[in-house]
């Protein structure tokens, strides 16, 4: 299974692009799509999901142009958009049965499948309560369940961990990891920790353009020997930020321990092993 995105652009007017000359090939496994808010992640995912069409370029699944044959994609697709909505008066069972009917999913295996998903997402105890009474995180988990109803081969999650607590995030990551052997999973986020523990490959984007794509080791290699830590005073921090990319700061008595990225370290710095968050901040700052 192969998803090819070939020089795809989404143009809103003469000077405004949501996506520009974007190209990537995605195969089975988990692709983590990272970018700041406004990077074009949702624009890209909506075109893959056939919610909108590219202005230029071609998106093809197994060599089938999905703009010309959207149903080829849709029958294999599970999509959780960022603005997913539910019917508040239905309970989780009723809502998932309704969504299954919309997807053409039925048969004797439907109820056991719904129960399996509700158990896997820790919703079984609340399954007969109206969804309108659920917390934001619980509604998000119902959305994740509806994505998986038809055992899709293309699974798209747009900022899926919004509203989930730390325990729910871990449960979600475990669930996604189990799906990756047989499907293409695209997980979009601006939170690196949502991506770095489960993604087979990572794509980093900004302003509608692809900055870097590859496995995590390849991306991290771009900032090899550029990550350091040092201790500075609180008063020095503002001027320090003008010449260095500051990744994080933490208090150390009356001073600050600063993790930063630079071609050359300041005095009394210690070299640190780079990680995906370092690479993400570096690439989105310099481009």
Write the layout of secondary structure elements.
Blueprint: E1 2-11, E2 17-27, E3 29-34, H1 41-48, E4 56-61, E5 64-65, H2 70-74, E6 77-80, H3 92-103, H4 110-120, H5 136-147, E7 154-158, H6 166-179, E8 184-189, H7 192-195, E9 201-206, E10 209-214, H8 216-220, E11 227-233, H9 237-243, E12 245-252, E13 255-261, E14 270-271, H10 276-286
Parallel strand pairs: 3-8, 3-9, 6-7, 7-8
Antiparallel strand pairs: 1-2, 1-4, 4-5, 9-10, 11-13, 11-14, 12-13
Short account of what is shown:
The chain is 31% helix and 30% strand.
Structure description:
The chain has helices at residues 41-48, 70-74, 92-103, 110-120, 136-147, 166-179, 192-195, 216-220, 237-243, 276-286, and strands spanning 2-11, 17-27, 29-34, 56-61, 64-65, 77-80, 154-158, 184-189, 201-206, 209-214, 227-233, 245-252, 255-261, 270-271. The protein is α/β, with parallel strands linked by helices. It has 3 domains: 1-76 and 152-214, P-loop containing nucleotide triphosphate hydrolases (Rossmann fold), CATH 3.40.50; 88-151; 223-286. A hairpin with a 2-residue loop joins strand 9 and strand 10 (209-214). Helix 3 packs across helix 4 (110-120). It is globular, with a radius of gyration of 21 Å. Belongs to the ABC transporter superfamily.
Keywords for this structure?
Rossmann fold; six-stranded mixed beta sheet; 31% helix; 287 residues; four-stranded antiparallel beta sheet; globular; alpha/beta
Q: Assign an overall shape.
A: globular
The CATH topology of the largest domain comes to: Rossmann fold
Reported for the largest beta sheet, the result is: 6 strands, mixed
CATH C-level of the largest domain: Alpha Beta
Strand line-up across the major sheet: 6-7-8-3-9-10
Helix content: 25-40%
What's the total number of strands? 14
N-C termini distance: 32 Å
The CATH homologous superfamily of the largest domain is called P-loop containing nucleotide triphosphate hydrolases
The sequence of SSEs as H and E is EEEHEEHEHHHEHEHEEHEHEEEH
- SS-based structural class? alpha/beta
Overall residue-averaged pLDDT value: 92
What is the subunit organization of this protein? single chain
Tell me the number of structural domains: 3
Domain ABC transporter: 3-232
Keywords: ATP-binding, Nucleotide-binding, Transport
Protein name: ABC transporter ATP-binding protein
GO molecular function, one term: ATP binding
